Structure formats: structure tokens, C-alpha cells
Amino acid sequence: MKIKRTMLLISAAALLMPCTAAVDAAQGAADESAEGSKAVFDENTRAQYVIYADREGISISPYIFGICDNDSMYGLYPSAIKQADVALSAYNWESNYTDTGIPEPANDYSLVSNYAPSQRNTPGLCTHSLMTHADRYDVGLRFATLQMMGRVAADANGKTDMEYDRHRWLDVHLIKNDIYTTRPDTTDGSVYSDEYVAYLVNYYGEAADGGVTGYFLDRAPDEWSTVFPNAGLNRLAPEKLARDSSRLASAIKTIDSTAMVLGPSLSTLSACVDLGNKEAWERTAEGSDYTWFIDFYLEHMKKSSEKYGARLLDALDVHYYTEALDPMGNMVRFSTDDTANAYRMQAVRTLWDSDYTENGYSALHYKQFTPFLPMLKAAVMMNYPGTPISVSEYDFGGGMNMSGAIAEIDALGTFAKEEIYLACLAPAEDYEFQKAALRMFTDYDGERSQFGDELLKTKGGDEYGSLWCAARDDGRLTAIVTSQNLEKLKDISIDIRSPKQYYVESAYCIDPDNAQIRRQDAELFNDETHSAAFTADTLSAYMLVFAEKPAEGSADATESEVSAGETETTVPDETTARETAAETGAQTKLQPGEESGTEEAVTAVTEVTQEPAETTAQTTVPAVEASLLYPRETAETDETVTKTDTDDEGFPQVPAFIKVITTMLAACASFLTVWVGIRRM
Questions:
Q1: Which of 112, 132, 136, 130 has its CA nearest to residue 122?
Q2: Within a 13 Å sphere around the CA of 370, how many CA atoms are in the beta-carbon half?
Q3: pLDDT at 520 over 80
Q4: Are 247 and 195 in contact (CB under 8 A)?
Q5: Cα-to-chain-centroid distance, residue 516
Q6: Strand locations in 259-321, DSSP E?
Q7: Among candidate residues 127, 143, 146, the one with its CA nearest the CA of residue 81
Q8: Neighbours of 644 (CB within 10 A)
Q9: Mean of the per-residue pLDDT values for the chain?
Q10: What is the chain's percent helix, strand, coil content, to nearest 5?
Q11: DSSP code of 513?
Q12: Rounded distance, CA 23 to CA 367, Å?
């Protein structure tokens, strides 16, 4: 029954959210006692943080720093790249025709417009473009999008009409049931999705050998009938999407067992609830105990996998474009005034914060399914355990504003904290500040230095600032600190709880005037009473790199004092990088069909800060750690307290029974909140 399912879902969500929070709160009670009034904020102009470097952290998937394929990725080192365009659902891979969809549907070559007309008869040119970009920017994971909508463009003759142009579309079949050809038959009146996979595997090799890493089962299926009104489609039924997903997934795995399959790539939180077809979903859910469409989809893919004999869904994929509105009803994602900037930086909280409700359609109408990421994790745990979560398209806007950088930093930190497997930013045309935020995690010093692979527990901050900290393999700690205050400076102090002593070895910040990452004088951040202390500017983001203090009197101690005071004015900007590339003769790799004379090919830059590595004919896909692809099914993430009376600093330890009571109360509160919401529906 629905009531039973709802209770199960709430119980699972309670395990992931309030119960974990209650245990953390109980575990940190001694620390709260130690901090006392230090955790109190004075009008958001003071923030005091604690980094628990003495506790086990969370493994960070390296693939959350991905990007959706675009022509302005210069200066980035993304870990994953995927195709992302509305027109992909109508893409005819055999001829490269597509339809642009609303507001002015037209058949054209828009997905391959960067190629000369004489080159556009190359099948799958859109994916050739993806692979070219992946090689150029040294991206290991490459994801193509397959067509499941059922209709693709039959020509490139411009504007289409719903009543008279039905003949300008071709049917798409998932399975060919015939011999695959190296060059598809463009005269048979049909297009086959599995033959597309076979073509790409024949051309690039299997995923394990450097070919296409994986395939998305189309994109935004909840929008097909509205985005492509001239294709003659009906609104999609839940059973059809689930059935087609398992059929195409099994075909992919049969052709390339090493390739990943990701779906259903729904466009919004509300689509996750009812697939954008409320009437059909209610019929599907009637008499069942499904709470939302995600439950149904996961259960179907699990059963199909068992029948096939291998996993058919390697990641549950969704999109997340913020729907937040400002008080005047304007979409925050496309606004840049101070009000929109403030709401943009808060909008990330819908992903993780149960105490926050944004002013947006999905969040207001489906509050019981927020915070979004923990609810997805609960659904996975109940219906298809071990399935990683992907957010393959997301955007909070503000690409040319410092607020966009701060929102992007918090989004990436949230993906790390919620153990998301894959995430790809889908930026608007200009996104220099979002680029800077990505570089904070992947290339903050211009030498490919990265954030780290283990997210550490922290405490402190409020909705007007955040701290994300990671441990690196070289023993250093990195901390990214943000301040969302639009008007006042903010005093920030950071204490690191660890048997080791740390100091700020180097520091960086995003310049709010030009979106460049600039190096700061590390001595300005070191403090006698804290691990770090400084005054943050309005709307700012800082990267601090902590190194262990050597023993007093050692040679390393003297050397560290000198290095801590070294100052550089800026990380090399794009102009410097281009000049360096020209001097070293940096070249790019071109895929078939691409003109070598394009400006982008001439100026594209490879690694310029290290010695060039030996190259091979194909780029090898990084081995995916089993612990990342299929998370452990043990409860190792919950921290435990073993001391009975006092903690390691001599403060009273919270009795165990209080923690149990706190946990139970939190779970009950979560249950009542969601139950009341459902009763009101």
C-alpha cells in the first residue's frame, strides 16, 4: 500500500538525513561545549570553523568535476564530459540532421554547425566532436547521448509545421535485429540506436580501451512532447520509458559490456515525481506502494538487470537547473541583480538542507521530496541498492558574476558530501566565474593541483558562508572558504583538530573583477591562536593550503618559514598560457571530419606546466574504483564515539541514551513533516 511505501521511504530518508545529523550532533556535543559562544555569529560578520582532520572522511568521486560539451572550455581540466543539448533527442546520427525544438522548431545541422558542409555526411559527427574535445582537454570520461524519443529529423530544410510536415521525421528503433554496418543505410527510412553504439565501438573501441565511456538513455524524456510539438508525440507513459530503457540498456551491454549506462535523465525534481504526466503516473502507482516515479524506475531496472544477468543501470541520472525565483517572480538563474545573486547562493540548499524551502515550483509543490539528493539516495537504498547517483546537467546561473562562483563551489562541495558519482556543469554561453570555481577544485595554482580525494568533516558557518575541506595524498589539507555577505567584511578563523600542527602554506582567491584565481600572501592567513584567521571580502572565495608544521629546530622548519612568506601576484591567465603553449609547440588532436585550420584548433592548449607524457593512439579511460561505482553497503560512514566520560580534550561526553533519544526525535520529526505534506496533497 502507499502508506506502507511512504513509511519505508521516510524511514530510509531518516537514516540518511536526520538520524545522521542527530548522531553527528551528539558526537560533536563535547566540541560545542568547548566552543561555547565561539559558534555564535555576530550579524554574519564573523565565522569560526573547525576542521576535524583526526576523523575519517568521505571519499570524493573525481568525476563530480565534469562539464557538458561546449566550445568554451579553455582553461578547464574537467574529469568528465557529456553531450547536452535539447536537440539531441531529435538527432539523426546517420545524417547529422536534428530539430531545434521550441520556441521555433526547425530541422537543421545545428549540432554539427562547427563542421564544413562537405564534412557533414560523416555519421555520428556530433559524437566525433565530443571525442575531439575530450582529447583536446585531456578528459578521461566521455559520455554520448542515445536517441529514445522515437522520432528524429529527416532533413535539414528549416522550419517545420505540425500539420503538414510529419513526413520530415523518421522513426527511431532501439534494436535493429539485423547485421550492423560500418556505414548506415540512409535510405531505409529508419534509424537504429543500437547500430549507433556499434558504429562508435567499431570506430573508437570499447569503453575499457578508450572509446565512449558510457551512454545516456536520451535526455529529459518528460519534455519530449512539449519541446518537439511537430514530431507528433504523445505524453510519455511511465511503463514505456522504463521498458525502453531496459531494452536499450541490454543492447548497449551486449555490444560493449564495459560501457556505462545512465538514465533516465529527468529534467526537474517534479519530473522525478510523476514524469511530467500526472494522470498516467497515478494510474501506474494505483494499488502499488510507489511513492514517486523514481521508485518505479529503479525497481524496474533492477528486475530487468536480474533477468539479463548483469547490471543494466550503472548510475541513476537526473538534471538540476535551479527553479528558484526572487520575490518579484524573476528566475534567479537568468538574473544578476543583488537580489537574484543572494537567492542564487541560497538555492543550492534545496539539494541538501531539510530546513530550507526555495521559492520555486518543484520545491513548493513537492516539499516532501526535498532535500533532493538525500531523497534520491533513500530511493536507491530501497529499490536498487548500490546504484550511484549522477547529476549530469546542473546550473545555478551567475556565470559572469561572483555569486555564480560561490554557488558553484557550494554545489561541488554538496556533491562531494552527498557522495555523488558524476556531475557535469551545463553553463550558459558565458561562465567565466563558474570556470574559476571549477578550477578552485581542479587547478587552483595553474599547475593542476587539486582539492583532494577525501572530504573532511567540518563545523561552523551559516547560510551566509561555507567551508569545504579535503585531505590530499601528499599530506596537505585544502580548505575552500566562501562569504556570501554582499555588504560587510567577514572575520573568519579556522581551527584544525588533529594531533598534527598545521600552517597555511599557500593561499588563493577568486578575483571578483575578472574571474581569475590569484595567489595571496600566505602570512596574511596564519595566526598565533588559530590554524588560520583572516578577513574575507564581500562576495569572496578563498583556497587555503595547509601543510604540517615540522618539528622546531629542524631544517624543514626553517625552509617552511621562508616558503610561507613567498608571494605571487597571479596564477597564469589564459594569455600567458597561450603564449607558453606557442613556445612549446603545443598541438591538439583532431578527429575525422574536423578542420585543422579553425581558430580553436590553432589556439587550443594542452598541459603546459609539466613535461609532456607519452601519447598513444587512444586515450585510456581511467579505471573506475569499485568503491566509487558501487558504494559499500556497510554503514561505515556513521561516526562512532568510543570514549565514555570525556573526549580527547577533557570535555564531558554526551551519554549514549541522549544520542538515541535525539536520533528517534529527529526521525519522528522527519516522519511527521513528510506525512503532513502528503496528507495535504
A1: 112
A2: 26
A3: yes
A4: no
A5: 22
A6: 260-266, 315-321
A7: 143
A8: 8
A9: 82
A10: 40, 20, 45
A11: T
A12: 24
Beta carbons of 306 and 317 less than 8 angstroms apart:
no
Region for residue 134 given its phi and psi (left: phi exceeds 0; alpha: psi -120 to 50; beta: otherwise) = alpha
SS3 (DSSP) at 243: helix
Does the pLDDT at position 633 exceed 80? no
HSE-up of 198 (CA within 13 Å, CB side)?
20
pLDDT in tens, 39-56: 222 346 889 999 999 999
pTM, two decimal places: 0.79
- Residue carrying C-alpha cell 534509424: 191
Closest CA to 175 of 198, 152, 153: 198
CA atoms within 13 A on the CB side of 593: 21
Asked whether the beta carbons of 405 and 344 are under 8 A apart, the reply is no
The neighbour count for residue 43, using CB atoms within 10 Å, is 9
Helix (H/G/I), strand (E/B), else coil: 72: coil
Q: For residue 66, which of 370, 434, 327 has the smallest C-alpha distance?
A: 434
Strands 490-497 and 465-471: unpaired
The residue type found at 129 is S
SS3 517: strand
Neighbours of 186 (CB within 10 A): 15
CA angle, 510 then 515 then 521, to 5°:
30
Question: Distances in Å between the alpha carbon of 116 and those of 127, 441, 465, 599?
Answer: 16, 36, 48, 14
Question: Out of 12-21, 230-239, 458-467, which region has the weakest mean confidence (pLDDT)?
Answer: 12-21
CA-wise closest residue to 593 among 131, 19, 4 = 131
> Residue 665: which H helix or E strand, with range?
helix 656-680
Centre a 10 Å sphere on the Cβ of residue 656 and count the other Cβ atoms it contains.
11
* 3-state SS assignment for residue 222: helix
What is the rounded distance in angstroms from the CA atom of residue 354 to the CA atom of residue 224? 31
Q: Which residues of 277-332 form beta strands (DSSP E)? A: 315-321
Assigned C-alpha cell, 193: 540506436
Measured at the alpha carbon of residue 344, what is the angle toward residues 338 and 348, in degrees to the nearest 5? Answer: 155
Question: In angstroms, rounded to a whole number, what is the distance separating the alpha carbons of residues 178 and 159?
Answer: 34
pLDDT at position 163 = 75
Find residue 173's DSSP bridge partners: 192
What gap in Å lies between CA 391 and CA 78, rounded to an integer?
15
SS3 state of residue 604 = coil
> How many of the other CB atoms lie within 10 Å of CB of 101?
21
Q: How many CA atoms lie within 13 A of 383 on its CB side?
A: 25
Buried b or exposed e, range 572-582, using 16+ CB within 10 angstroms: beeeebbeebe
Q: How far is CA 591 from the centre of its chain?
A: 27
Query: What is the per-residue pLDDT for 612?
Result: 34
What Rg, from alpha-carbon coordinates, does the chain have?
Answer: 26
> What's the sign of the alpha-carbon dihedral 242, 244, 246, 248?
negative
3-state DSSP assignment of residue 176: coil
**Of 392, 351, 372, which is closest to residue 66 (Cα–Cα)?**
392
Q: Quick one: cell of 62?
A: 573525481
- Residue 178 makes CB contacts below 8 A (sequence gap 6+) with none
Q: Which of 364, 409, 419, 367 lies closest to 388 in space, CA to CA?
A: 419
